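worker-03 picked up job from queue 'complexes'. Input manifest follows; three sequence lines, order preserved.
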Amino acid sequence: MHDAVTAAPAPNFLERLQRAGSAGGAAIVLLVLFAVFALAGRNFLTPGNLVNIAMQSTILLLLALPMTLIILTEGLDLSMGAVLTLCNVVLALVAVKTGALAPALAAALAVGLAFGLLNGTLVAALRIPPFVATLGTLGVAQGLALVVTDGQSVVGIPDAVQQMNSGLWFGLLPPPIAIAALAYLAMHLLLYQTRFGAYVFALGGNREALTLAGIHARGNLIAVYVLGGLMAGLAALLLTARINAGHPTAAIGMEFDAIAAVAVGGTSFERGKGWLLGTVLGVLAVGVLRNGLNLMSVPSSVQVSAIGVLVIVALLIDAFRGDRR
Amino acid sequence: MTAASLDLNRGPLAHLSQGTRSVVYRLLAMALIAAAMSFASEAFLTSNNLLNVLRQASLLFLLASGLTLVILTAGLDLSVGANVALSACLAATVIKGTGSVALGVAAGLGAGSLVGLANGLLVTLLRIPPFIATYGMLWILHGVTYWFMKGETIHGFPPAFRAVGSGYWLGVPIPVYVMLLFLAAGIVFAQRTTWGQEIYAIGANPEAARLSGVPVRRRLVLVYVASGAMAGLASLIFLARLNSAEGDIGETLTLPAIAAVLIGGTSLFGGVGSMLGTLVGAVILTLVLNFMNLLTINANWQPLVTGVIVVLAVFLDNLTRKGDSR
Amino acid sequence: MKTLQTMTLTLAALAALAAAGVARADNERLAVFTKNQTNPYFQAVRLGTEAASRQMKATVTHYVPTKPDSIPEQMSQIEDVIVKKPDAIVFIPVDYKAMAPGVQKINTAKIPVVNVTDRSEVGAFVSFVGASDYDLGKETARALFKAMGGKGNVIGIEGVKGSLTNIDRQRGMRDALKDFPNIKLLASQPGNYQRLQALQVMENLMQSYPQIDGVFAANDAMASGAIEAMEAANRKALVVGINGTKEAIDAINAGKMLATGDYNGFLQGCLGTMAALRSLRGQPVPKEIVLPAAVIDKANAARHAVPVEQRSCPRWEDAVKG
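worker-03 finished. Artifact:
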C-alpha cells in the first residue's frame, strides 16, 4: 500500500506560497520598517548596522527554524528558551574546564538532544499536549540551570569559544551569520526536499492520513522535537560566544519571541500551513524593529509596546488579506 | 441536522460526572500532599500556615478562574500577568490622585475588563490566534505600565482597603471569602447557566455549537472579558496586600495561573474542566511551594517542581480519561 | 613699559580663558545604560543623570532592556548605541561578569565610559562611581544589631543571588554579625529584591520561627514586603533595608522600619554623568568614587526627605574629595 502522502512530489514554489497561507504579512511589515528607519536617521542603512541586526538575530533564528516545524505539526515548544539557557550554562562550564570548543559543544548538543527526546516522548508517546509537556520541561531546564550555577555567571570562557563571535568565515561572513545561513539551508532542504518534511506538513494538516498510511507518525513527531533540542544546543554556542559567559537566565523567555516570529512569518498554528522563509522574515522584522527604535532613541517603554503592536499588526495584515477563514 | 445538533443535556452533564471524578482524584492528591507535608514539617499544620496557604491560593485562584473559562473554549490568555500590573498601577495612581478608593477600584476593574475586551475582539473579529493576540497584548500592556509608572513605586493606601488583602474576618483571611464567592459564582455560571453550557459546547466542538445557534463570537468575547475582569480584581487584592504598586507586579503570575488551571484538570483543547478543579489545582500548587519554603529548599528548585507537577497531573488525567482520543 | 606688560598679561589671560572656553564644549551627547524599568533605584539613577546633564548643558539618552535584566538585549543595545557614536557612556551592567564583551566593544570604539553601581569585572573605565555594598551591608546590619540590644534572633532576606550588590551586602552583614555573639541568624532566604517574594518568604519564616526580633532585608522593597507580612500577622520586629527610597523613609518616620542604608542612586547618577562630562572637557576625574556608607534612621531622616524628582545634583567639589 503506497502512501498517498509520499507519492506526491515535493511542493514547488507556487505551492509553497499557497502553503505559506499568508507570508505576506511579514514581508510587508519588514519593508515598512526598513523604509521608516532608513528615512528616520542616517545610521540605519549603514553596512555596519545591517550586519549588527543580522548578528543580533542569529540566535533567535536558530530557535525559530525548528519552532516552525514544530508549529507545523500543530505543536509548540515552550521549553526552548530554558533549554538554550541550560545548554549555554553547560557549554560554558565544560569549556572552562577543558579549555576547548569541541567537548563543550558536544555537551551542549547532548543536553539539547536529551530535552528534545524528553519533549518528543511526552508529546508523541505519552500523548501529553505539547503546551503542557513543554511547560513542564521548561521548568525542569530552568531549575537545573539555576541549581547548577546557583544563580551566578560562569566566566573564563576560552578563546576557542569566544572566536565564534568574531572574524570572518570564508573571508566573507561572520561565524554566527554563516552558521545561521547553513542552518536555514539545512532546514529548508529537510522540510521541502525530504520525505520527513512531507511528513511534518502532514502531521499538522492531516495526521489521520499519516497514521492510516502506516507511516510512523510517532517517530517523526519525536524527531521534530529532537531537532528543536539540537538547535538549542547549537544556538548555545553562539550565545556563549556573544556574552562570553554562561548565565542561568540568559535566554529565558526566548521561546515566546521565537513563536511570535514564526507566527508573524505566516506559519499558522493549525492546519499545517507555513513558510520557512517567512520565519526568517519574522525574526528579521523583530530585530529591525528593536534596532531601529534604539537608533531613534525611542524610550524603552514605547519600545516594549511597539513589539506587541508589531506582532498584532503582522497578523492583522494576514487577516485582512483574507487568508484566514 | 442530527449530526450537527447539540445535545445540551448530554454535554456538560456527561462532563460533570467525568469532571466530578477528575476533581475527586485531585482532592485525594491534595490530601495526600498535605499529609506528607504534615509529617515532614511541624510548621505546616499550624493554623497560621494553613491560613497563609489559603490566602496565597485564593489570589492564584482568582486570577486562574477567568482563565479557566478562556481555556474551556480552547483559547489562551497570556496577558493576565501584565493585566494585573496595569490594573494595579492604574488603580494605585487613581487612588493617590483622587483620594478615593472607590474610584481606584473602578479604574482597576474597568481597565482589566477593557483589556479583556480588546483580547476578545482580537481573537473573534480579527481572527488572530489567542496565543499571539494575548502575547502581543502582554507587551503592549507592559509598555503602557512602564510608561506611566516611570520606574516609580506608589505606596501607602488606606487601612480599610489594605484589609481586603491582608486582613482577617472571623479568623480567616479576607481574600479567602472573595475566593469562595467567586468559586460559587463560577460553578453556578459554568454548570447551571445556558451561557456556561454554551462555553463548554464551544470548547468541545465550535462548529456544532455554531450550527446549533450558539452565538460563538459573543461568548468568546465574554470569556476574555471575564479573564480580564478577574485579573483586574486580583490586581486590587494584590495591591491591598502589598500596599504598593510597581511596574513589575504580576510578571511572575501568568505561568502559575495557567499551571493551576491545567493541574486542575481543564484541558487545553477545550470543553473539559471545572472551576472547582482550578481551585484544587491552585491549592496543590501553593501547597507544594509552601512545602519547599518551609523546608527551606533552595528556591531554584521551584520552577522544576512546578513543571513536573503540571506534566504529572495531565499525564495522570490521560490515563484515567478513557476513550478520549485527544 | 608697565602698560605694555600689563596689556600683554591681560591679553595672555584673555587668550587662556578663551582657550579654556573652547575646551569646555557644550551639548555633549551621553548614553546611559540601566538594568530595567521597574526598579525605582534605576529610575533614581536616571533622574540623577538627567539633573547633572541639565546643569552641565549636555543631553542624555536612556537605554533600558525591554526584557528586564536581559543580558543579550543590553549587548544589542550597546552595539546599536556604538553606531550612533555618543560622546560618552554611563554604564550600569546588567550582569557585572557577563557584560564584559559589551564593555570591550565600547572600549574598541574608543568611547569613554563611566561604570556606575555594579563594578564590572572587565574593561577600561574613566571612573567607577558606586557605593561600597559591603560597608552598607555592614553598617546597616550594625544599626540593627545595636538597636536589638546585642541579642535576639534575626532573619535575612537576600537579593538576587548572582548580583554583586547582594554578594557584598551579605558579606557585610555576616561580618557585622561576628561582633555580636549573642545575636543568632536563624535563616537567610532569597527574595530576589522583590517585594512580593519577600512577603511570602517572611510569611513562611514566621511559621517556622515564632520568635523573630530583627529582619535584615537587602533592599527596601523587600523590607516593605516583610513589614506587610508581619503587620498582617500582628507581629513586630525591627526591620532594616537598603536603598533609602521615599517609601522606606516614610516607614521610618512612621516607626514601622528602623533604618535604611543610603544607597543613593540619584547621587551615583549625578556623579557618573559629571565624571563623564568632566573627562570629555579635560578636567581631572578620580579613578573611583566610592560613596561613604550612611545609615538613615529616624534621627536623620528629615535630611533625605526631598523626593528624587525635585533634587538637584551637588557640586562636584563637595561630593568628591581629591
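worker-03 released lock.
Residues 65 and 73 of chain C are 6 Å apart (CA to CA).
Chain C has two domains: 26-131+265-291, 133-261.
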